[in-house]
Amino acid sequence: MVRILLISDRDNQKEKFINLLSRNKYSVEASADVQLITDLIKVETPDIIIFDTYTAIDFKTLSKNIKPLCEKTVVLLLVPDKFTDKELIKYANGFIFENSNDEIILGTISMNLRMKNSLEKLSDTNKDLQDSLYRQNALYSTSSQFAGTLDKKKLINFMVEGIDRALSFSLTCTLSFCDSEPVLLINSLHELSDEIISALKLRTILQYKSLFENGQVPYEIDINKLKVSKHIKDSASRFTFDIFHYDNMFAPVRLGDNFYACVEIFKDSPFSSDDATCFQTIAQQAALPLKSASLYQEIKETNLKLEKLERLKSEFISIVSHELRTPLTSIKNALDILMTGKCGEINESGTKFLDMAKRNVQRLSGIINDLLDLSKIEAGKMDFNFQNINIHQVIDYVKSTLSILAKEKNLTLIIDETENLPDINADSQRLEQVLTNLVSNAIKFTPEGKKITISSRLLNASYIEVHPYFQDEINKLKGDYIVVSVKDEGIGIAEKDLLHAFDKFAQIENSLSRKVGGSGLGLPIAKQLLDAHKGAIWCSSELEKGSDFCFAIPVAAEKSLCPAGQY
Amino acid sequence: MKKILIVDDEQDIVESLKFVLEAVDYTCYCAYNGEDGLRLAKEILPDLIILDVMMPKINGYKISRLLKYDNKYKNIPILMITARSQEEDKLIGEETGVNEYITKPFELDYVVEKVNQYLKAS
Question: Which range marks the domain in which residue B63 is found?
Fold first, then answer.
């Protein structure tokens, strides 16, 4: 029923309006007492106030006092036919002229009521829109928070925060399985007694169990051991057991078979269906990042284990190699002393076997050195002394140390150098190690009387052509490179074995190295050393025709960009 | 005759060094642990010491440091033998006054050559 309050001290007007309005099913109250008027408005807000301007009350003052109590109320002024107080008009929604007939009075009232209803609807819609926008924002900021972390505990906290932002709860209970043991997270507006907390514990556990058929829960919970973590916003006031009469919602946080948490929310005002959707959405949204976080954690743990294993391996190799060196030194020394003949003459076959022993001691010590080198590089402990050098020096050095070996096999060592090549930024000793390895391999695998060619030239990375196996190696190069090639006329490598030429203890290397000696680690070491120089190594070969091993080292910049020091 | 002290817990290595050094007319004294090595060094005042790093009780670096800080012995050249070859080891060696650094496995000829360098010159 529409309520109308008439403020008038003129009995004829009061009588007239009460009669007219009551007849038309309006509830009417009339008064001219300021205190009574205020009380009436306080008890129940009228839909319309009709103010008789003849009344001995100052309307402006009254209006200021009662307006805050009845913002939505329509105020109509009952005015004489000739009304000119423009100031008063500001305080009213409309007028009723004293001499108007009943139809016009009723018409004015119903028109104003319709207007009031439309305005109210509009403002409700507006408020709904605002709420929904706010909720959207809350959802959006929660999902961006979710995206920002892989920490499961933080994710659960973000979820609770998000629910608070969107729904401003009185209390939430979150049973979280995202820590080393289950935790009940209680976020509450007010302080809670121990009894309420015990009740919440039990309630949450029962609800959690109800999610699974036949009580087949993924994690068993012992109520006596369940940890509670409380966050109270205002600890000055307390919730009573009335909290259990609040409106509430409950949702699990899970993805497939993975169960992360369940959350219950309490609020002192009823939830709308939009609230429920929003709550479910946030709980569901939390599950995916929680799954990612779990996977991430697993990967991290596995990685740590692998790193530890890798370190142990390196240390193991290093210790074993050092330990092997001592007895090896004694064997070598003994052989050397015997071979000097100072312990007595040694006959021809004796010398042959001493040679054999000495050769194998050298081979063994080579393997140990290679193993140590490799474990050092892999552990990042290899020291490099980068300097601007010319490849010419390196080739020269290798030529001078290996030409005797080549001559012994009657091999021709051809050096085909491009003149005036630019400098490279490199560790000359390490490059010598690489080139020595390639050339001594060539010497080993090339039959007597043939030739080996060492060449050097300047090439842009885009002009380097390689077997498709090594294209990836070349793709990472950019700019100008000095390319050194060691070409032999040896036994060659089958195409299927090319790919594994630089693998540690590669099958092909193994079978060959057993025949010709060597650790099978020379090429993998060369590859690692070139990686440290930001260069590349590759090869091409044809069975029975020969192999061509090449490596590329970047040309030094005007000023060395690569600081000397540890790799 | 010049006196050389060889200190290494690896008896075989001491034997072989002694054999080649005596062959070129040096008098060799041997010790098989750091303690004996240090005592002998002070007792016989050798012209040169060949020292292993890894030894029980007192390691090579410690012996080297103790001798080099004592005016009476600081001029005795020390050749350090070790299975280690890492840069930081060499740094420790330099800091403790080691004159030469020989990495296992070494060539006997190389050791003789180094010894000659120190003893023929003086």
Answer: 3-110
